[in-house]
Amino acid sequence: MNKLLATLLALTLALLAGCAAPATPASIVDAKIDENGDLLFTMSNGAILNAGRVRGEDGTSVESAVVDESGDLQIGLSDDTVIHAGHVRGADGQDGADGRDGADGQDGRDGRDGVDGKDGRDGKDGADGRDGANGKDGADGEDGTRPYVGANGNWWIDGVDLGVAGERESVTPENYSIRAVAVQPDGSTTALETSIAEETVGDYFTITYDYDELTPVQYGGGTWRMALVTISGFKAEEFATVTRIEADGVDVTAMAGADSPVASGLQGAAERFLKQGELCLPTQLPDRMNSMSYLVRVLGTAKDGGEELQKFYYVYVRLDPFNTEPWPREAVVTRVESETSGVDVYRTNYGIQFEQEEASVGDEVSVRISFADVNRQPFTKPIYLQEGQGFAVAGEKEENGYPLTDSQAVVRFSLEEVKQRASVTFHLRTEKGEYITSEFSLHYVDGTGEQRDPQGILFAESSVTIAVGETYRPIVLGVATNSQVEATLQIGEGSDNGVIRLDGKGNVVGVQPGVTYISAKYPSSNGQEYAASSMKITVTGA
């Protein structure tokens, strides 16, 4: 955001750079964003200048621009941030000096009295004075720096990326079609199956292939299974010529002359785009389900006036080798709670700890485990826990595994196996993918004996990441006993109190994104008060 603030100051005079100087000095008196997302500047001479599209499709973008009564430009972003971009209403040019008045003409002489009865002749009027010279125009203000869309599709100014997406079009099955062929070492091709995948995030193309049946080729210094993906449906009417086509900054038009099996498929790329509305891209085919995304930039000249023209397109394709298992994605464990009386179970830096508090507990311990995706958001689509070594899953098994309820499952552990320092990994599965957690080592503590002095305390986890609105219960352990103690939590000195709140019941609740620290205190039975080193809490957006 600091970089965006610094660069938006230059944006205030952006449009003056590429426009002819007005006949009279002019400055910006108003700014607004119209219904198309274009930034419009109103000049003091009445002219309207269009700075182009500034409202991006994704990420943080410019939502409003207003010149206030002080002549300052206020920029409103989509995340409700308002940036003061500085003074943009220039001072009026100095008035030219008034011309000098011309000298009065001389009065005519009085006529002589005539003979009685005759009037004398009127005198002649004096000559008019000449007009004074016009005053000089005031000097024009300096041109501002012109913003432009860079190769990455973002707005740039003075060589600095504003981080705001420029205008780009998403290539989706609604308006485009796709076909794909696998490339052989001799340059010949074999058609691949393509389809449209329907997901909650939107429709996208899918290419299906048998990885083991494809022949690898030499490409880009490596050996890969390669395909040529052709997308049709581009509207090229605005272009008079196309000089360059880039995919993520790589010149596709130049690849046609390279010594590789894909070169022949890329020949005439500019002509195919202009005449047929087609774009061909080389793509590596992985052995696991993956996705490919390209930011395509087409450069050329416009039909109207021959000026330089560039268009951006965002392409997203899923690559699906149907004979292999999906590449597993990451899942996280957000909470571990015991459901067996007499045994406490909790997370630590080194895994999951089982603390037996009563001697009469049997061998089996039930534990409720909460799962989330890599962004710490609970799963909203149907997801199933798979059986694993070292634990059993409670509930009724279905075709895809044991269904989670509210992203939670109850698993059963054997205390005898836990005492042997076993470890577990949790595998989850949806209808279209697989998730896997980190490996957790299991630890056992016998807390049924006489309570000993902890001889110091420490947090079971040195740092943790939670989401806004998420509740987390820190665990404090005794140094000597490795058992949990009921300590009092407090926010660390100098920390941002607005990031989290303590609910008074031993829990931390995420309030807003940021980083803060907490500490803990515990009064020992021997009269000694112990304090724990601080624990880092990172809160991410919900």
* Total of DSSP H or I helical runs spanning 4+ residues: 5
Profile the largest sheet: 10 strands, mixed
The total of beta strands comes to 42
Q: Termini distance?
A: 20 Å
Structural category is: mainly beta
Binned strand content:
35-45%
Helix content: under 10%
Low-confidence runs of at least 5 consecutive residues: 1-25
Q: What gross morphology would you assign?
A: flat
User: What is the arithmetic mean of pLDDT?
Assistant: 77
CA radius of gyration: 37 Å
Can you give a write-up of this model?
This protein is mainly beta and 542 residues long. 6% of the residues lie in helices and 44% in strands. The chain is built from five helices and 42 strands. The strands form ten sheets. Strands 10, 11, 12, 13, 16, 17, 18, 19, 20 and 21 form a ten-stranded mixed beta sheet that branches. Strand 11 and strand 12 form a beta hairpin. The chain is flat and about 130 Å long.
Topology diagram in text:
Elements: H1 2-11, E1 28-33, E2 38-43, E3 48-53, E4 62-67, E5 72-77, E6 82-87, E7 148-149, E8 154-157, E9 160-165, E10 169-171, E11 177-183, E12 189-199, E13 202-209, E14 217-219, E15 222-224, E16 226-232, E17 239-247, E18 250-251, H2 252-255, H3 263-266, H4 269-276, E19 278-284, E20 290-302, E21 308-321, E22 329-338, E23 343-348, E24 351-356, E25 364-373, E26 384-385, E27 392-393, E28 402-403, E29 408-414, H5 415-419, E30 423-424, E31 427-429, E32 434-436, E33 440-446, E34 457-459, E35 463-467, E36 471-472, E37 476-478, E38 488-491, E39 500-502, E40 508-510, E41 514-523, E42 529-540
Parallel strand pairs: 10-21, 13-21, 22-32, 24-33, 35-42
Antiparallel strand pairs: 1-2, 2-3, 4-5, 5-6, 7-8, 8-9, 11-12, 11-16, 12-13, 14-15, 16-19, 17-18, 17-20, 20-21, 22-25, 23-24, 25-29, 26-28, 26-31, 27-29, 30-33, 31-32, 34-37, 36-40, 38-41, 39-40, 41-42
